[in-house]
Design a protein that fits this description.
The structure is a homodimer of 405-residue chains. By secondary structure, the first copy, chain A, is of the alpha/beta class. Chain A is built from 14 helices and 16 strands. Chains A, B: GO terms for molecular function: homoserine dehydrogenase activity; NADP binding.
Chain lengths: 405, 405
């Protein structure tokens, strides 16, 4: 029997307890061992809860109980999750977490402790919820040179953008609807400003390069400036606007960024709508593969946590290599990254197109009826060059969205 | 150093040699060992080939060389692939194959030998080409009760159906185009009759249930009866017609089948076009996830073979459990499986709809201009019940395609 402690009895924590129960037979069959929840750490009381007897309020009970071999951290936030996770590893316990903030901020250190002590620190649920993603990336694609990872990694913003695209809503209207449905927090900053996506693409990049990426170095732009007008052009163009977390890797260089992207219908992420998440991975010999599923939700996320527990059950005495080392992975400045650009400019194209083309080269033009503006899609150029060229049109430019087919 | 032999120097075999070379540094970094190709078995000579020196014509050289620890079977077909793969395992060598025919026919036995001898028999490339699929299924979803696997598992037929949908081609025209492009064989039977898909869904089902499925028990229907007229209705309905390999599991029961399916726009496999493959997996707590990518192609498939070699490099002394045992998994008769049906009937709906509704219940009706026929979509019923009801309309029914939203 393997005894587990679950820290945090909120959505994910209670989901983990539920999945361990629901799939008990399958798990026992697969691991050859019974997985039992000995403690549930939470500051709150849960009178009448079927697991009331396991609730404890004092972390030290878990830390000091040598029978507890795996600890699930499902508290969220960096503190005290970091302190507790580290203490558990130092006490010789494997740790599983669904907490992207913890992994992005302290993954390197916690993985190093796990390696040194022949333990495991796993976090499949921290990116893409239930989608099997980190394990395929570190194991199935282990021999592959990963050239690009692009993901729709945040369900809240994807829901908002889908609403805007389908129903012509403004950002504010779609956000309000998302809040009503419980998809967005009352303070939606972490989602809509791209911070959540930033943590997730940071984790994916660290796993792909094997080096620590500092999430504070990742240029991050959210979706708050995307408007219903942008989607009118998108509809006419047959394109879609999505919040991307992207990492492009070449040799030892990595460009990592979070921003809204306009994408064409042939892009593998084009049809990923509502609260769904998806990640495409391009490898040098593999070509492009895509993983799709519920990026959040109680049971899917808990299912991913349980998959880590099952994995550890087969490796109680050895460290499963993730390849994420203590080395630092510098992030290329945004100015060096290449994009095409969707631009909306004030005025009539008849008056201004010659100037625009003189600056940006042959650009595709899009006009909507009865608008005092027009849009163009430029060819590819570095962001630095684009900014320089765009400076001359500063007063005319109403919107800039990076574009890829 | 780990010495490898590659059997078969055709598309996949030469791809494996190429990927091992191209990604040598990454593979060495990941495994901590150099992977070297010692022999390439092929009946042909390859004068001037950079690997000419490694070419051998006699299997016994590989079988008897104790330095060869991993053998890649990339010959295709069941014989002599089966004989050679078995001999390699019995000689204490790990075996990796991309050969779905071999795995579907002899996987149970070869896995049992590998288990018994503490070796590995891996076959990630046998289903879905480069898409990481089998490892996520057996490892990431190990604790999950898999309820359904549905896949577009054959690139050739998906290309043909995409051509028919987009360009209004007949089956024969689209097949000819696929043959011209090298996507379809001169004898396309294995693809268009669904046999290839049948092998693949059999393998997926055996991994999901842990029991041997006999591919000869799987009801298999290809795409040769799908017509351009069917796609006219599909266009009007906003649906798509795809060749599905499906396995629905409930308790100890498994319904496994291969057939064309009409699917709605919300189905996760709706937008999978051209030669791409994709597999959706529904788990009891996970919800639905989907894996997408190139289902074939030299380098993507070779990349999956190499991922198995890399996996084995970390398990040279132990058997990685796949969960596929010697037990038999009975396949439910097709008559017990539930579907909705898209039916095309001769005549005018005004004359016949009352009879159709009396038989099948409230059915959605679709009419195209200037046709001497109409179509209906029925509610859900077992196939046995459908056949019984449809018998009364035998002379009128021009087409039957199973339907799911």
């Amino acid at each position: 029997m393997i005894q587990v402690a679950v820290m945090g009895y909120g959505t994910i924590g209670s989901g983990v307890v539920e999945v361990l129960e629901t799939n008990k037979d399958k798990i026992t069959e697969k691991t050859g061992k019974e997985i039992a929840v000995k403690y549930i750490l939470d500051l709150r009381e849960f009178p009448g809860d079927p697991h009331e007897a396991q609730i404890v309020h004092d972390f030290e009970i878990i830390e000091k109980d040598e029978d507890v071999e795996i600890v699930v951290e499902a508290m969220g936030g960096v503190n005290p999750a970091y302190k507790f996770a580290k203490a558990c590893l130092l006490a010789g316990k494997h740790v599983v977490t669904s907490n992207k903030a913890l992994v992005a901020a302290h993954g390197t250190e916690l993985l190093a402790i796990a390696r040194e002590k022949n333990l495991n620190f796993l976090f499949e649920a921290s990116v893409g919820g239930g989608i099997p993603l980190l394990r395929p990336l570190t194991q199935s694609l282990a021999g592959e040179k990963i050239e690009e990872i692009s993901g729709i990694l945040n369900g809240t913003t994807n829901y908002i953008l889908t609403k805007m695209a389908r129903e012509g809503q403004t950002f504010e209207e779609a956000l309000k609807k998302a809040q009503e449905l419980g998809y967005a927090e009352r303070n939606p900053e972490a989602d809509v400003e791209g911070y959540d996506t930033c943590r997730k693409i940071t984790i994916l990049t660290s796993l792909a390069t094997g080096k620590e990426v500092n999430y504070e170095d990742v240029p991050t732009e959210g979706i708050t400036k995307i408007t219903d007008t942008d989607f009118k052009y998108a509809a006419k163009l047959g394109t879609s606007i999505k919040l991307f977390g992207t990492s492009r890797m070449e040799g030892n260089k990595a460009s990592v960024y979070v921003c809204p992207m306009m994408i064409g219908p042939d892009h593998p992420l084009f049809a990923v709508n509502d609260v769904y998440n998806a990640v495409m991975v391009r490898g040098n010999t593999l070509g492009t593969v895509m993983f799709y599923g519920s990026g959040a939700g109680k049971l899917p996320t808990a299912s991913a946590v349980v998959s880590d527990i099952v994995e550890i059950a087969g490796h109680m005495e050895d460290n499963i290599p993730t390849g994420w080392t203590n080395e630092k992975q510098p992030v290329a400045p945004m100015g060096e990254v290449t994009f095409s650009y969707f631009l909306r400019l004030a005025g009539k194209s008849a008056d201004k197109l010659a100037d625009v083309r003189a600056a940006f080269g042959e650009a595709e033009t899009i006009e909507l009826p009865e608008m005092d503006e027009f849009a163009v899609i430029t060819g590819e150029m570095t962001e630095a060059r684009f900014r320089k060229l765009a400076a001359a049109f500063e007063e005319d430019i109403r919107q800039t969205i990076r574009y890829t087919k």
